[in-house]
Amino acid sequence: MPKEPNVRIITLGCAKNEVDSEEIAGVLRGAGYAVDGAAKNPEVTVINTCGFLQKAQEESIEAIRKAVRSKGGGKVIVAGCLAQRMGQELARLAPGADAYIGVGQMGRFDEIVKTTLSSREQWFDVEPPHHKWAEVETRVRTGKPWSAYLKISEGCDHQCTFCTIPSFRGKHQSKPIERVVAEARNLVRTGALELNLIAQDVTQYGFDLYKEFTLPKLLRELNAIDGLRWIRLLYFYPNRLTDEVIEAMATLEKVLPYIDIPLQHVHPDVLRRMKRPWDGERYLKLFEKLRKAMPMAAIRTTFIVGFPGETDAEFKSLMEFTREARLDRVGAFHFSREPGTPSYDLPGQIPHRVKKQRFDQLMRLQQGISHEINQSYVGKPIEVLIDENRDGWSAGRSFRDAPEIDGLVFVAGQHTLGTVVDAVVDHVTPYDLYGHVEGSPSGQKRVLTPLRQVAPKSPQ
Ligand code: SF4
Question: pTM for this structure?
Answer without folding.
Answer: 0.92
